Amino acid sequence: MGSSTLGTAKYGHLFNCEEYSDLTLVCQAREFLVHKVVVCTQSPFMAAAVRGPFQEATLGIIQVEDFEVETVRRMVEFLYTGDYDAPPHPSEAIEEEAITVQPLALRNETNDKILRHVRVAVIADYYNIKDLSSLACTKVKSSISAPNENHPSPQALADAVKEASTLCDDNNQDLQDTITTFAAANLNILLQADDLNPLFNDFGVEIIKKLMQKCETLETQLKDTTKGLRAIVESQKQALAALNRARVQEARTSASVTKCLAMLREQSRCRNGQCGALFECYVEGNGHYPVYTLRCAKCGCRH
């Protein structure tokens, strides 16, 4: 049984329960009272910290630095329940309200989700919680591929790429590939971010913008060329259809002429009994593509 499944089965009722807590995670003055049997069995990093000759073992406190409070909360939630929430926690909502208001198109919930999941993947990588890392990667892919989601906001996308770049390559190649592919597909949005350091410096950004402009020009040319080729193909289809119709008509005409010639050879008089006129000539055809000649039926003279 995997650790995430084990957490869901055995420890879910202990989430947010301070009773019998024997370890404290501290992040930006926020304390998370947890249980060693829950966190240390899923995080080799924390297990080593509380076993070794460190302050964490003596005081029963682990200082969680370089991570946001809500990222730590999501990690703790996973350790107890096997899952974590993606929507912003009330404390995050308060922080976001304090940020300068951006246009609606630039404040996209979807990309905020991607950034939150990437941050969870980063903390999972740091504390070596493999099941959490896998879950975060799955949630990133789900958010990216959701059919009803809008384009990401520039800065949130830039932050997600920055966060993903800090991950250990060996353990998170799948997530990094997902993020870099997504960023490349939305490069025009990424370049609108206010802060792209350390991803690109100003000179690098200008080079990429020029490359984007070149790509856009080539894309326009490709569309025009494709449109022209489609017109040519359509014209050829129409010409081929006309040729086929002409061939059908030619075949019908040829069959009709052949039938008339056969009748002319077989009939020496008009079949109208009141007429009975003699047919004093016949039509001769020569060669694969016959040259028809009118001859006298009596002497064979060509006319």
From TrEMBL:
Q: What is the name attached to this protein's record?
A: BTB domain-containing protein
UniProt-listed PANTHER family: BTB DOMAIN-CONTAINING PROTEIN-RELATED, BTB_POZ DOMAIN PROTEIN
> Which Pfam family is one of those matched by this entry?
BTB
Q: Where is the signal peptide?
A: none
Extract the InterPro entries matched here: BTB/POZ_dom, SKP1/BTB/POZ_sf
Classification via PROSITE patterns = BTB
Domain called BTB: residue spans: 21-88
SUPFAM superfamilies registered for this protein in UniProt: POZ domain
